[in-house]
Design a protein that fits this description.
The complex is a heterodimer.
Chain A: H1 11-25, H2 37-48, H3 53-63, H4 67-74, E1 88-93, H5 96-114, E2 120-121, E3 127-132, E4 144-146, E5 149-152, H6 157-168, H7 184-191, H8 209-220, H9 241-247, H10 254-266, H11 288-296, H12 319-327, H13 341-354
Parallel strand pairs in A: 1-3
Antiparallel strand pairs in A: 1-4, 2-3, 4-5
Chain B: H1 6-9, H2 28-33, H3 38-43, H4 48-58, H5 70-75, E1 86-91, H6 101-107, H7 109-123, E2 127-132, H8 137-152, E3 168-173, H9 183-190, H10 204-207, E4 214-218, H11 219-231, H12 233-237, E5 247-254, E6 260-265, H13 270-276, E7 286-290, E8 299-300, H14 310-315, E9 324-329, H15 334-348, H16 354-371, H17 377-390, H18 397-412, H19 414-421
Parallel strand pairs in B: 1-2, 1-4, 2-3, 5-9
Antiparallel strand pairs in B: 5-6, 7-8, 7-9
Helix pairs in contact in B: 4-7, 6-7, 6-8, 7-11, 15-16, 15-18, 16-17, 16-18, 17-18
Classes of the chains: A mainly alpha, B alpha/beta.
């Protein structure tokens, strides 16, 4: 078995992150590893604090796509930072509602106090400041978050300055409604889809008064919705799959079981869990670009694309690759079959290594 | 602050928000003690088609803004087609003013997980994704924990509760793009691409995630499902109106005494909601408000008795949207507010289609000029013309949403614009912000 190789640009990150990357890839259906790109970019930021060229190379090589494809995605989303960030990201909402209730004043005060502008970091590397769009807490306006956790509600210039002073002094104040503060890099690990490793952090923070206002009002006045009976029967016109299989023991019957059986028939033994929900390999082999091109001009045999339209299929080296190639007919757009067999092989190698 | 009258208090319908009162309801043990995971047991005992019929009978409509009948959407999924089906839950809450899904996922995450299991079973999906907004870190933390607990308890994974039904549920964090709340952009983003909307048809029910039949539902919609399964369609319809059934979480923010979440039957009026929220703040008189986020046409004080259901708000010329009601007073300037919303739409435009990308770019500049005191009367025609060329001509609803506050403020508050142009109102922006605007 060959181990996965990386170019020198991506190798240092691969050494640290490949194990986590494998776990991320395994969350998505086999052959659909590209779905892991957003979490992978978050993962890269756990090491570097931003998406560097090395980070782009790492994502590209894990997924078997090119760096331009990764770069196109990384530059589209606000949360992928293109320059090094500080230990804490302080975001002030300046969208309309927070803005008129004082958010703009809070932001302007912080800019002056810290001497940095939007998306800039203080010289000591502690704080990156940004003005944010609606953070979905308008009933607490204006809001300030630290690493996206709600830290100061109904912020004033004074309370915001107190917050950044405390962060600058190396303290970690308790957020109003979020979990205890961690570093931005640690937060990226959670954004990549991993559980918060800090004991008890998931339980931090209680609901504020605005959140509970309506339901508390109802409680105080003894108001409840009448007529709720959890045993209200559901009208049955057909036997449920469970009942059907109970009637015919030994036989797999009913739609759900049939679908499950189909899944298992297709799925490889090694990766049965990963294939759940994937009843067939046909029908979902095209990437959105190709689909769009075909929709625009359904009669066109080959979608318009720059560069060569000739299929250049790399030789399949691993069993997983061969399986991927067999399962994915070329999309007719000059791309290698499946586009992401690399991702699939990386996952299967991880599975083999565990044995 | 005056107490709300008893007949107004009776309009409160604590259903989805009820568990928020229990501080530990995010833990599976507490959730189970509060009727949790009873609905999934009940649902797995009936045929998926009967579940779809139940949701149709309940009259449940999408809580993400458009109000599409949920049962009908589920029924669109072709069955026996040999393709995998997917459930994708849109938790990319980002519409300005909207703040109902984040508390739900933070304080009652299992209700969403339970709803996801039932919905997946109904549409025969063995894989479901919750696409949660990247910035919603605490909600995601609680949700991931809930999913982990649900797997450990046998509510997720293979052969759920011995029913033979399998489900994998993944919580997928976005990365800060408002456009990904648009369902086809969300699907592209979930597939690992830039979040840009797709041309429809085909609709997601036919070719959604990985070109397979997909249901995309809002958090509030899916979280409603367990209650309907337990209480039945008739009980659900005892709340709300005939065509807009059920409870809805109204998010009040801005110039009221007690901003917050108020769950009431659909069809309540703003006047009643303001009463529940303790009235307007002292010294503030209602001037304009959004019925459901900034992408819905603004309404004014004269619409205070509009029924807040899908039909009532439509009759008033707006959209119910996400029932994110941002309430502004005579001390707020509709021109300034609209400018700030446009800065948002300009920033969030994905760039795929020309009307939205270019139109927002130029409208923002026109607003800056007006607010800096350099506007002309012709600018108002330019704004109207640009907005008309965005509305209905852009690829997705983001463009329509951007044109909306422009058109509605020009309609209701033309004099506020003229105030800046004729020098009656002091400029709100400095010369500095005009660089490149000429």
């Amino acid at each position: 078995m060959t181990t996965t190789e990386f170019t020198p640009a991506a190798a240092p990150l691969a050494e640290k992150l490949l194990g986590s990357a494998r776990e991320i890839l395994a969350r998505y259906p086999a052959g659909r590893e590209r779905s892991a790109l957003l979490p992978l970019l978050h993962l890269v930021q756990t090491e570097e604090g931003h998406v560097s060229p090395a980070g782009v190379a790492f994502c590209a090589e894990v997924l078997g796509i090119n760096k331009a494809q990764v770069g196109a995605v990384a530059t589209f989303y606000t949360m992928y930072k293109r320059r090094p960030t500080g230990e804490y990201l302080v975001s002030v909402c300046t969208n309309t509602l927070c803005n008129v209730l004082g958010g703009q004043e809070v932001y302007d005060t912080l800019t002056e106090h810290l001497g940095v502008g939007h998306d800039e970091t203080t010289p000591d590397g502690r704080i990156t400041l940004e003005h944010a769009e609606c953070l979905a807490a308008c009933d607490y306006a204006p809001v300030v978050t630290v690493n996206y956790d709600f830290t100061v509600d109904q912020a004033t210039p004074e309370s915001a300055v107190a917050l950044v002073d405390s962060l600058t002094a190396g303290e970690r104040p308790t957020p109003a409604r979020g979990a205890r503060i961690c570093s931005l890099k640690e937060m990226q690990y959670q954004l990549a889809g991993f559980a918060d490793p800090r004991e008890g952090a998931v339980g931090d923070g209680v609901a504020g008064a605005p959140t509970l206002r309506g339901v508390r009002l109802a409680e105080q006045h003894g108001i409840a919705v009448a007529g709720f009976d959890p045993d209200t029967p559901i009208t049955k016109t057909k036997p449920s799959p469970r009942e059907e299989s109970a009637e015919k023991p030994g036989k797999v019957a009913g739609v759900v079981q049939a679908a499950t059986a189909a899944v298992k028939a297709v799925a490889g033994k090694v990766e049965e869990r990963r294939h759940a929900g994937r009843t067939t390999d046909t029908g979902d082999v095209k990437d959105p670009e190709v689909r769009t091109a075909e929709q625009r001009n359904p009669t066109m045999a080959t979608p318009d694309r720059t560069g060569t339209t000739e299929a250049t299929q790399p030789p399949a080296e691993t069993p997983a690759e061969r399986a991927g190639v067999a399962a994915n007919a070329p999309a007719g757009d000059g791309k290698p079959a499946g586009d992401s067999t690399r991702g699939e092989s990386i996952v299967s190698q991880g599975t083999e290594e565990q044995k | 602050m005056t107490q709300p009258r008893p007949e107004v208090l009776q309009k409160l319908t604590p259903v989805l928000t009820k568990r928020w009162l229990s501080p530990d309801a995010w833990q599976i043990g507490v959730y189970e003690r509060l009727d949790g995971y009873q609905a999934v047991r009940k649902a797995l005992d009936v045929h998926p088609d009967d579940l779809i019929q139940l949701i149709k009978d309940s009259g449940l409509r999408g809580r993400g803004g458009a109000g599409f009948p949920t049962g009908l959407k589920w029924g669109f999924i072709p069955q026996g087609d040999g393709k995998p089906h997917y459930l994708v839950i849109n938790a990319d809450e980002g519409e300005p003013g909207t703040c109902k899904d984040l508390p739900l996922m933070t304080y009652d995450p299992h209700s969403l997980v339970e709803g996801a299991i039932i919905a997946s079973y109904a549409i025969r999906a063995n894989r479901a994704f919750i696409y949660i907004r990247g910035e919603a870190v605490h909600a995601a933390r609680r949700l991931r924990n809930a999913v982990k607990e649900a797997y450990a308890a046998g509510y997720l994974g293979e052969n759920i509760l011995g029913s033979g039904f399998d489900l994998e549920l993944v919580v997928h964090s976005g990365a800060g793009a408002y456009i990904c709340g648009e369902e086809t952009a969300l699907l592209d983003s979930l597939e690992g691409f830039r979040g840009q909307p797709r041309l429809r048809p085909p609709f997601p029910a036919i070719a959604g995630l990985y070109a397979s039949p997909t249901v995309v539902n809002n958090v509030g919609t899916i979280a409603s499902v367990p209650y309907i399964v337990l209480g039945g369609a008739d009980w659900w319809k005892s709340m709300g109106t005939e065509k807009s059934a059920g409870p809805m979480i109204y998010s009040l923010s801005g110039r009221v005494v007690n901003p917050g979440q108020y769950e009431c039957g659909l069809g309540i009026t703003l006047r009643e909601l303001i009463e529940l929220a303790g009235g307007m703040q002292p010294g503030h008189n209602l001037k304009f408000w959004t019925p459901g986020g900034s992408s819905t046409p603004l309404l004014t004080a004269e619409h205070i008795d509009t029924a807040m259901d899908f039909e009532g708000v439509a009759a008033a010329g707006s959209i119910l949207g996400t029932t994110a009601m941002q309430i502004f007073s005579d001390q707020d300037c509709p021109v300034y507010n609209t400018w700030r919303w446009l800065e948002f739409y300009h920033h969030e435009s994905c760039g795929k289609c020309t009307p939205c990308r270019e139109g927002n770019y130029w409208m923002v500049r026109t607003y800056r000029r007006i607010l800096a005191g350099h506007g002309t009367v012709a600018d108002l025609d330019t704004l109207q013309d640009t907005a008309d060329n965005i509305f209905g001509r852009s690829f997705c609803g983001l463009g329509d949403g951007a044109a909306t506050p422009v058109v509605s403020t020009l309609k209701w508050f033309r004099d506020d614009y003229l105030g800046y142009i004729e020098g009656r109102t002091a400029p709100r922006l400095s010369e500095k912000s005009l660089v490149g605007a000429h």
